[in-house]
Every structure is written in structure tokens, then in C-alpha cells.
Amino acid sequence: MIERYTRKAMGELWSLETHFAAWLEVELAVCEAWTELGRIPAADMAIIREKAGFDVPRILEIEEVTRHDVIAFLTAVEERVGPSARFIHLGCTSSDIVDTANGLLLGRAGDIILADIDNLLAVIRDLAMRFKGQLMIGRTHGIHAEPLSFGMKMASFYAEFMRHRERFVAALAGVRVGKISGAVGGYAHLDPQVEARALARLGLAVDPISTQIIQRDRHAAYFTTLALLAGGVERMATELRHLQRTEVLEVEEGFSKGQKGSSAMPHKKNPISAENLCGLSRLVRTNALASMESMALWHERDISHSSVERVIMPDSTILADYTLARLTGILKNLKVNPDNMARNMMASYGLFYSQRVLLALIETGMDRQKAYEAVQRVAMDCWEGRTSFPEAIRADADISARLSGAELNALFDPSYYLKHEDLIYSRVFDAPANGAA
User: Fold this and answer.
1) How many domains does the chain have?
2) For position 182, which CATH number holds?
3) Residue 262 catalytic?
4) 77 and 215 part of one domain
């Protein structure tokens, strides 16, 4: 079905036209099921197939009077079909149609989102492969820690978005269900075979037990999974924002010809796309809370969930589609600056080697706390004096007495930090990655 619903169509998927078309799709599937079971005469079914349709303005006009959208829809369809329309909606309640149609719409929206995730994963994978072995400084608390590769950083995001994909596949299956079970779910005026046949025609699973509605834990799982996905988008966007800071500048968003960064300062190139994504991701997470609030309804149903879903179903799926597509675009056009990565890595004077020296001293039999204090003393002096940590370690009498020049030289090899990169790649991508930046 995905080829019918391109990215341009995510918004169209939630238009009134498509919304009512999904309702009609469900109504016709129910009629076909009744026909197969002999309840609707073949001649009437032929008329229903031929004439069933609607005009959105007419539905809205009728709704002004009825104050009930499903009745307005049915009335508009009946006007076109004529006497055979008496078989439409036979034994059904409004939620049979609305909830089943929502299963169709959420499923189709989900197909678009899955394609978006796959596109994003492909771009992240490409960056991980291209920049395997490209050393940069890792940061914890925003402070220099130890080196890793830019490829490993991308591999981390790849692994995360794979988890988001797995969760979303499960959540998508959870909402790809329907119910044609009547007013309180007991099939009082329906045959369960109608439900089974109609939903099979629609490509939906049968909800094993429904009330007047499909229970909203299914929908909450869908929207909270989108919220987690949005959290992943924001995590990556936040990383890109930090890496674009003037004093870091290890990556840059694409900047098109004629683009302007500031109304006041002509020099500005701001990380606006990453910033936009952070803000939009927060909206998706907010909607997830609304979906969880819609789980608890009175008895077999009320309609407190309905108004919420009219907002969050289109908004969250459209936002997910947009943010994933925009993040993919950022990464496709991302400028990576290896020279700045090398410069920044040494901006802390080689202090990132401190743990290597600490562990080497411990290996000589030195007490851990004494070794820590010895390395820390040298490190703090280097930071304050803006001097080379490796050179200061070599010049320290206490440390050099325990470690030879050759041993110290081996400690200050930055490639050491990538010795397990191949293993990490094999875990993430199922096969060792080839190539380097």
C-alpha cells in the first residue's frame, strides 16, 4: 500500500476526503461480508458498489443539523445510493466504522513512517561507514573524555533507530486491528463472521474482544512509540547542534546559496534545522501523554478520547514523517570537518590519555589511589599551564621511574582507542565495516 501514500500524501491521508473514504471502505467491506453470508441480495450489493459515494460539503451541511458525523456521513451516502442503502451500516454502531477506519489510517501512516525510518537508517549507515576510523574527542558532561571515531558516533545512532524501528513495527501491528462487534462488543445484531470477513478484506486483524471501541492501550503504544522515536530525533539533533558550535565546528548543516542566518549579523550560519527538530519532537512527546490519558473511559465507552484523537492522530504522524525526512536531509547534506576534529581532540593538551597512564601505573604494582593522585596532579598542572600532558608525564620523575620511555610512547598512541571498532561495527551492522574516512 505504501506506493499509494507518498510523503506528500501524509497530510492528505488525514484530509476530510480521505477520512470519509476510509469510513466508506469499511462500510462497503461490511456490506460485502453480509452479501457473502446471504443477508444482502446480490442486486442490492451491485447498486451499493456502483453508487456509494459522498460529497464532503454535503456531509458537513447535514452535520450542522444532526450534530453527529457518522449519521451525517451515512445520510449523504444514502442520498446517492437510494433504497438499497437500507443495508448499509446493518447491525453496526458508529465506533465499528470509526475505529476500524482508524486502524486503516494509522496503518497507512505507519507504512510511511517505516519508510522514513529506513531512509534515515541508510543515511546514518553511510556516514558510519565513511567515517570509520575518523578520530574525534568524545565528551561527557560536555568535557573532553576519551577519543572515539565519528563513525562510531553514527553507529550508536544507527543502533538506536533500529530499536525505534523494532518498537514501531510492534506498535503498528497493535493498531492494525478492527472491530465490527456492535454497540457493546457482543455481536447482538451482527454475525462474528461478518467481522472476520470484512476485516480480512481490509487487511486488518480482529480485535479478540472489544467493547463499543477498540481499547486505547493499542493507540497509546503507537503514540508513545512515536514519542520515543521523536526522542531519538531530538537526541541526534542536539548532538548536531553541539558539534556545530563555533568553537567546535566539527560538522555543519548545509547552507544553500542565498540563505540568511540572521537579520542583524550577516556572518551567521545557524543550526536551524536541528533546532526545529528539537522543538517539534517535544510536541510528539506531549501528544503521547494525551494518548495515555485516553485509555481510561467510562464503562464500555465514552467519547472523551475522540476529540483528542482528532488532533493527535494527524499531528503526531505528520510530525513524525516530517522530522524523520528533515533529519535525513540534514545528514545527507552534512559537512563533516575532520581537520577540526583533530584540532579539537588536542585542544585539551592530550589529557585524554590520563586513564591509560593510570592503568599502566597500576600494572606496575602502584596503589590505585596513589596512581590516580599522581596522574591527576600532572593533568591539573597541564590544564592550568596549557602544556602537553604526554610531555609532562615523561618529565615526571615518579612516573618515569616506573614506566620506560618505550612504554610511555606506546601509551600515547591515539589509534589505541579504536582497537575494538571492528567488533563494535560487527555488532551493529552484522558484518565488519570496511573503509575509513
Assistant:
1) 3
2) 1.20.200.10
3) yes
4) no
Q: Which residues pair with 336 in a beta bridge?
A: 251
**Active-site hit among 141, 256, 267, 299:** 141
pLDDT in tens, 294-331: 999 999 888 888 888 899 999 999 999 999 999 999 99
Same structural domain, 12 and 116: no
Residue 144 is a catalytic residue = no
147 phi, psi to nearest 5 deg: -70, 155
Domain containing 392 equals 351-411
Per annotation, catalytic residue among 15, 189, 262, 404:
262
The model's pTM is 0.92
- pLDDT tens track for 186-217: 999 999 999 999 999 999 999 999 999 999 99
Domain membership flag for residue 260? no
